[in-house]
Amino acid sequence: MAGLLASCCAQVAAAREALHGLGAARKLLPLLSSGNEEVQEGGAMAVQQLSLLPAAAREVRLHGGVPLLVELMASLDARVQVRLQPRAHVLEHIRL
User: Fold this and answer.
1) Which of 29, 32, 40, 88 is the most exposed place for a label (fewest CB within 10 A)?
2) Has residue 94 been placed in a domain?
3) Cα four-point dihedral sign 75, 78, 50, 23
4) 96 in a domain, yes or no?
């Protein structure tokens, strides 16, 4: 589901605004701690796409998203590294 949200945001800029208005960035953060790699990847993709909107990026920061993303990117699990390495730019829009 999060991957679908990420795709929508990538294709339709207005989707970012609408999802941000619904508080989606904050609601996606728990997915980054999931035990399922596909769920983690979808969550990271969706957070990255939403974070292109500065207000959503602030929301991610305010709700503890940066440590979750850093922890996910620093995972020692080889499967997680392989799936998320191409997504390392996820923190790019979330200014510290």
Assistant:
1) 88
2) no
3) negative
4) no
Q: Name the 3-class secondary structure at 64.
A: coil
* Cβ pair 66, 44 in contact under 8 A: no
Residue with tokens 């440590």: 67
What is the C-alpha separation between 38 and 31, in angstroms, rounded? 10
What range defines the domain where residue 32 resides? 2-89
Our measurement of the distance from residue 30's CA atom to the centroid of its chain's CA atoms, rounded to an integer in Å, reads 10
Q: What is the pLDDT of residues 35-86, one digit of tens each?
A: 888 888 888 889 988 988 999 999 999 999 989 988 887 776 777 666 666 5
- Per-residue model confidence as pLDDT tens digits over 87-96: 556 666 665 5
In a domain, 58, yes or no: yes
Number of folded domains that form the chain:
1
* Residue 95 resides in a domain: no
Q: Count CA atoms closer than 13 A to 68's CA, side-chain side.
A: 22
